[in-house]
Structure formats: structure tokens, C-alpha cells
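Q: How would the C-alpha cells look for this protein?
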Amino acid sequence: MPKLSLPMRLVLLVAGTTLPLIIFAAGIVFNNYVQDRKDATQRVLETVRGIRLVLDAEMQRMTGGLQVLSLTNALRDRDFDGFRRIATGFLEQYGRDGVVLVADREGRQLFSSVTTDTATLPMRNNLDLVEKVFATKRPYYSNLFTGVVKKSLIVTVEVPVIRDGEVLYDISFSPPIEIFQDMIEKQLPGKDWTISIFDGEGTNFARVPNPQNTIGQRASPSLYAELFRKPEGTFATVSLEGVPLITGVARSSLTGWTVAGGIAESSLVAPLWRNLAITSVIGGVLLLVGLAFAVRMATAIARGEMLHDLLIDELNHRVKNTLAILQSITTQTFRSASRAEREKFEGRLGALAEAHNLLSQEKWQGSELQDVIARVLKPYLLSNPDRVRMFGPMVPLTPRLAVVLSMIVHEIATNAAKYGALSNDSGTVALNWEIIAQSDGRKLRMIWTESGGPHVSAPVQRGFGSRLIERSARDQLGGEATVDFLPRGVVCTVTAALEQDT
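A: Here is the predicted structure in C-alpha cell form.
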């Protein structure tokens, strides 16, 4: 076997050490893609579950309002003029396009919120649903159909009017279809998502994107084939626009309607190719640099045997440096992180940004505790400011305390919105704070108390958010954080050491 020349041996040395590192980095990128896809599938399912909970809460609120109407004496006594005044108050919650109808067992309309001319009112055109209400004495929710009054696509809530154990009438309410569209638009995670609400027959009545051309259409064939197999699930589908999606569905046991949501496959594949391209470019550049350096060093060595040993040592030293640079760049570029942390990153970044915005307004001289808390809790106070009650003295905070406390309050509020008192329509939160004097200095104590939410049970394992709260309180605030999972609601206590300049 012929002996290789010195330049060729150097080239093979550089190539033999650099190429495995490039392949290793590419493997890290692909492994991240696989993990991202798995996490995206879980995120899709959690998103449709969340929207389904919002939908159920709205329909329960709507049904409860109709049941209150059904108990009015005016309706039971056929005083439809008096009932009209009461029904108007209910309709004001939903805008002018909502319609309330009252029909008898045969489907004859006895009252309409649209007109006082009851003599010309037509028959109900969904008599099967009216018959179910009279037969079972319980509320029902319709599929999408063309309303006889509105002359447009609607869904209805049907509630019985019961007197002495017998059903007298059926109250029907057709809410503005736009409220369902608004619901999913507010919950849309990003532009790469497709979200729909389907009735019991798989027909769209709210959708993003392209609602104008898809409402009233059946689900795409690939989605329709999976839509009714089980109440929840994830699978691959193709949208009505022909876009491949990772899709999740969640069916409501209350209405029989189904929320479906999907994220475009391309949103996961594109970063994969981008990261592979970056890996290839960086690796190729460093490989070329290494090869060029190897050739140059070999040429210098060939000029004289006297420098042979010295140049070989220098070559080994520089090759090691080149490999060390490549390893460092690879580690920094492709450092992986927990997907759970990434999913919560936007919310935490938003809380941090709000704290920084407030500090910027104060020219980084600090801020007041109540202002920091109000900024963080603003999204939860828009619809009902009374759900969170805050009480405590004025506490000026240094910039560091303001940032850390905003992150902690954000974590607590996020958990309450997902699982606690802010996850339903009746829960409330009391947030109180005080300054206490201790032997090691003044401390701030905040107590977050939830009530009226779902029944609470302690989690099997602590999540990242709980660890973030505890470690931030201990390591950055010089205090501690405790969480008590009481059946009536979570109680979280956070203490923080106040710095001298506060």
C-alpha cells in the first residue's frame, strides 16, 4: 500500500475529525425535530381542549339564562308583552342578531323577539328538536340549519318551560353565529393554525382561516373520517385548503359539538431544513478552513526538515483549537431545551416584558407593587374586573424585585386560569399583601387565595412552573413560596426580602 504524502494525511486528519462532528450536530437537529413534533401534537390536543372548555362555559351560561326566562310568571301566564321586556334584557348580552322564540308542542310560534305580530309567525322548521324537548323535559342544542326567522345559518339552544311537571312551551334562542367565530379567533395560537367548531353532523359553523367560504361545509374527508371515532384524539389530516395538518379534536358532552384544531406540518419541517442548512454551512466553512490550514501547514513543513517537528506540534495545536471552536459553536447553536419551558416561554416573556415596560416608564427607578400585579393580571380582568380582589399597602419595588415578582404572579395566575378559580365563570381570587418586620429585615408577604373554582386536589408531581416559583422566591427574592392545595381552592404564599432602597 503506497504511503500517503504529508498534505494528504493532514487533509484526511481534518476531514476525519470534522465530519463526525457535523454528522453529530445534524443528528441533534433531527432529534429536536422529532421532539418538537411530539410536543406540537400534545399542544394541539391541549389547545382544542381549552377551546372546548370555553365553548361549554359559554353554552352553559346561555342555557342558564334561558332557564331563568322559563321560570318567569309572565311566560307561564301567556303574558307575552311582559315577557318581551324580560327577554330584551337577556338579548342585550348578545347584540341585535340574537333571536328568542317560544313555541308549543306542535311547533307553532307563540312569541318572537323579532316581531309583535304573532299571527303571521311561521311554524318552527326543526320540529324533531321541539319534540325532544317536550318528551325529555331537558335542554337540547341543534345542529347548523337555516332559520325560518333569520333566513340564515344558525344553531339554537332549546329549553323547556315546565309548570306542574308538564312542559308548556319550548324556548329557543339562536345566538349570533359571530360569537363562535370570535371565540376561536381569540384563542388562535398562531397564523399556522386551523381551528373549527363542528356541529353534531360534522358541519362547520365557525372556522379560522377562510370562514366566509367554509362555514356550512362539512369537514374535509380526512378529518371527517376521524371526527366521530372517539371524543378526543390526535391524527394527521389535510385541511379544506389542502394543507397537511397535525390535528386534534375534542367533543363536548354538553352540546355534542366538536372543536378541531391543527398546526401546519410545514411549520415544523421548515425549521428542520433551516437548522440542517445552518449546520451544513457552519461545518462546511470550518472544514474548508481546516483543510486550507492543513494544506498551508503541510506546504510550510515541506520547505525544510528542520522545522518538521515544530510545525507538526503547531499543526496539532491548531487543529485541536479548530475542533474546540466547532464544538463550542455546535453546543451554542443547537443547545436543546425542555419543550414544556418553550410552550410557556411566550407567556413568561410577556410577563417579563410588562414588568420592563412599567420600569421603563419609571426610568428604571423602580415601580409600585400594585402596578406590577395589575399589569400581569390585566388579561384576566378584562371581562370581569371583580374576579380578582387586591388589597395591600403601597410597596415601592426595585427593578429586580419588580421583574421577579411579575414572573411569579404570572405563573400563579396561569395555573389558576388553566386549573383553578379563573378556569370557570364563578371563581374568584383574593390577593393580599403586607410588610412584616423580622429580625433579618423587612419582608413582603403576598397571599393568593382562590375560591369558587373546581374542586382542588394536590398534583402527583410538581411542574416547571411550581419549581420556577419556589426557586425564584428562594434564590432571587431571599424568601420562600408555599402552595397549599386545599379542596376549596389553592392558597399560595410568597415572601420576599425588601432591599434597603425600597
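Confidence is low (pLDDT under 50) at residues 307-334, 337-348.

The chain has 13 helices and 19 strands.

Upvote if useful.
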